Known about the structure:
four-stranded antiparallel sheet; mainly beta
Amino acid sequence: QVQLVESGGGLVQAGGSLGLSCAASGRTFLNYGMGWFRQAPGKVREFVAGISWSGPTTTYADSVKGRFTISRDNTKNTVYLQMNSLKPEDTAVYYCAASSRDSSVRTWVDYWGQGTQVTVSS
């Protein structure tokens, strides 16, 4: 079992920046690929970014490429999402995810966090 706890959400103006953190506990963090998803009201949950267990492999949704950066610190069992140049359409609940299939978090998730709200005002 892996427990994921997100933090760092909030309200920010368009064009601003916000950083999210996800602290993992339980099974060995190193064994999991990690990712971020988001869900806006009335929409399905969508993939945002993923990172392999070792860190060098990252993937992004086209809508956030060049603006968001995912990273992880395996010594702290934490994954991060730095969001820059935020847009109102980035408003959503952001979820941390862990996948036992290292580079496949986009399509296979074993554990979810509880989510943190990000609101971008225009």
